[in-house]
Amino acid sequence: MAERESGQDPIGENARLQSLDERLKRAQHDEAVRTGVAQKGQDESYRLGNRVLAELIGGIAGGALIGWVIDRFAGTSPWGLLVMMFFGIIVSFRNIVRISNQRPK
Length: 105
Known about the structure:
Keywords: Hydrogen ion transport, Ion transport, Membrane, Transmembrane, Transmembrane helix, Transport. It holds the Pfam family ATPase_gene1. A possible function for this protein is to guide the assembly of the membrane sector of the ATPase enzyme complex. Belongs to the bacterial AtpI family. The protein is an all-alpha fold. The protein has 2 domains: about 10-40; about 40-105, no CATH class. Helices cover about 80% and strands about 0% of the residues. It contains 3 helices and no strands. It has helices at about 10-35, 40-75, 75-100. The longest helix is centred in the middle third of the chain and has 35 residues, at about 40-75. About 10% of the residues are buried.
């Protein structure tokens, strides 16, 4: 019977394991805070909102810029700007709909 017992108190082992679990959880929490994973949901929504805003502004501004350049070279004063801005709005909305239809991770 002496061969089966390890000579260590099982109560002491439980206390050591609990202490190890607490230190491990604390270290994982500290690492999550350090890497920014702790606020994942809030940060992800913020980034998605910024992406939608950038798509909207970029599409309209890009279309307006291209339309203005076409007007300058072709001499079709407001029509190139208006048509290309309209196309920019259409592309922006299409991208925003595509972004909103993506599944969350």
